[in-house]
Amino acid sequence: MLKLGLIDTGSTPADDWQAAADRLADVTIVDADEADAVLVAGVDRANQAVADGRHVLLLPGSVAESTEAARLETRETTVVMLAATGRFEPSIQEVAAVNSSGTLGPPGVLRIHRWMPGGQQVRRSDLADLLDLANWLFGTLPDDVYAVRRGESDSYIHVHLGFPGGGMTLIDVATTLPDGEDYYCLSLIGGDGSAYVDDHHNMHLLFAGGHPEAVRAGEGVAGLVGLLREFSEAVAEGRIAVPGPADLVAALTVAEAAGRSIEAGEPLRRDETGDGYELG
Amino acid sequence: MSSDELPAVFRCAVVSVVKHAYVPNGVVKHPRFDLVVVCDDKDQPDWVHERNQLYADEQGIPYVRDIQRAIAEHDVQVAVISSEAERHCELSVRCAEAGLHVVQDKPMSNRVSECDRVVEAVAENDVRFMMWNRNFLPALVEAKRMIDEGWIGRPYAFHVDFYFAKDSGPAKGSRGPDEPPIDWLERQIEAHSDGSDGGVGVDPMGELKIEGIYPLAYIQHLSGSRVERVYARTTSHFHQANSDNDVEDLATVTLEMEDGVIGTLCIGRIGAASHPDIGEIKLHVLGEAGGLVISEARPEVSVYYRNQPQFEFRGRRMAIDLDYQLMADFAAAIDSGSGGILDAATSRDIAATVQAAVDSGKSGRVEEVG
């Protein structure tokens, strides 16, 4: 039984983590001082937990720089995994399954729209979450990164990626929606087929006068359940959990390249080391 | 010609009709337009004459192998041009110089310099020009209305997915090592039977050139902004004919537009297996006060039945008023002397955007739109 302590929970309510653990026989939520694994924010807390011999679930939004992510310590006896819920949402799992099985053929275009309310600056970590999906689905880092933002504000960012073999990705992240719910849409076009995850498709209609309201058919805590299952199995099997620190470094590296592309107004290309990007 | 002298019904010449005939068929959906003759140049190849003759026979109108004579003898006011792409502009220029208003099939041309000739000829001869487009599809009309009424505030980002779930000959990778590359024109002629011959012509064209006018016209129509810079990725991902002829069947495009407006486009001929209908064609629009998600196919009716052919569309579009509204707009443009929904200058700018995207796809750099 994996005993998980919730030191930080980020934007996900603790009740949701509890609900997810309730659905697994081998995970239980305990007080932090009784835990052999912890959910934490930030590299320092993660490293402290590893030093204490605890397994770590790291909130990915808590790390903003690839150099910071590279400081994450790992040991053979501990598992460090990103709590990247995006990968584990049931809809995304379906897409990943038909992609990795080859059903869709070689991936051609990945398109993601992520629109949120709030008006604040799009955080690099928000972008990195989506870039991680692109890296994951294409199985590699992009060769080319181009990005634009709206005006001088950072409430809207669009990123255009080119992958080896001709694959492409377009991602746009906005925080300019009015108060209310967000919107998510992902499509993957492969050589033999395609997959669509779209809030537009998954809306109920509520009639209460005037235009009907669209009410999202949510995916519940299934994403958290999948994430905890991978974490607990990795711990039980003594293996690396996916996604791990290297995935976070990769996603943040691409996000940083996007930022540099915005400043330069030009695309960046992967450099000779294969780990970074340069104007080209 | 003053508005008092304008005819109640415009007599139209179909000037070459070698592709699918949706343009001339669409023109006559409006009662002010009548097809009176099909014509083309005498020196065209036999397959062109055969298609022109077939269409003339279907319409019960004569086919004349001399464009100037057809115009002179049939009292024509409007030319409807649906030739091979590389002849589009030459025919449009000749018709404009003959004083005809012009309705032209897409693409405007495969060369921007040819588009410039049309812009000049239309202006010099004071005739109206309309590129065939889809801006009056019901979903686009709704999108325009919602934007114009201010529901999402000032729009600042326009995203279009324009995927056609059609096959286009053998799949990429299917050609044997001893087989010759696919000849583009032969493939397009062969494709006439299933309507996938949008790229008919001698010069190979990718999806950006064949279909790009439609989604880029959406963005132009909804935003009113001109594209200034383009970054694109292109590849031949699906079809052997595209691979053999070094033209893309899949592309992604980032558009930087006037006033800081951003646009993007995903376009591809993604194969019939990729969608139960024509394809996922969507618009995502962000404004300062909201967002819009539009399915271009709607309204539609879903139909399923036993023994349904594999590739018959399950979703059937309905209440489509596109043809009538396009021609009503064109009639109004002629009557008033105004530009209309997609005039020559705007079409030329879109062709230049397409060319910049094709160039960017090859160079890997951001390209300025000329």
Helix content of chain B: 25-40%
Percent strand of chain B equals: 15-25%
Number of strands of chain B: 15
Number of domains of chain A: 2
Helical proportion of chain A, percent range: 25-40%
CATH superfamily of the largest domain in chain B: Dihydrodipicolinate Reductase, domain 2
Largest sheet of chain A: 8 strands, mixed
SSE ordering of chain A: EHEEHEHEHHEHEEEEEEEHHEE
Low-confidence stretches of chain B: none
CATH architecture of the largest domain in chain B: 2-Layer Sandwich
Verbal overview:
The complex is a heterodimer of chains A (280) and B (370). With 280 residues, chain A is of the alpha/beta class. Chain A is built from 8 helices and 15 strands. Chain A folds into 2 domains: 2-83 and 224-239, 3-Layer(aba) Sandwich (Rossmann fold); 88-221 and 253-279, Dihydrodipicolinate Reductase, domain 2. In chain A, β12 (203-206) and β13 (213-216) form a beta hairpin. In chain A, α1 (14-22) packs across α7 and α6 packs across α8 (245-264). Chain A is globular, with a radius of gyration of 19 Å. By secondary structure, chain B is an alpha/beta fold. Chain B has 2 domains: 3-127, NAD(P)-binding Rossmann-like Domain (Rossmann fold, 3-Layer(aba) Sandwich); 138-368, Dihydrodipicolinate Reductase, domain 2, CATH 3.30.360. A 7-stranded mixed sheet of chain B has the order 12-11-7-10-9-8-15. A 6-stranded parallel sheet of chain B has the order 3-2-1-4-5-6, with helices on both faces. In chain B, α5 (112-125) runs antiparallel to α12 (344-363). The longest helix of chain B is centred in the C-terminal third of the chain and has 20 residues, at 344-363. Chain B is globular and about 50 Å long. The mean pLDDT of chain B is 95. Chain A binds chain B through residues 106, 108-109, 111, 113, 115, 144, 146, 148, 150-151, 156, 158, 160, 162, 166-170, 172, 174, 176-178, 183, 185, 187, 189-194, 196, 199-200, 265-267, 269, 280, and chain B through 156-157, 159, 161, 163, 172, 231, 233, 235, 237-238, 250, 252, 254, 256, 260, 262, 264, 266, 268, 270-271, 273-275, 280, 282, 284, 286-291, 293, 295, 364-366.
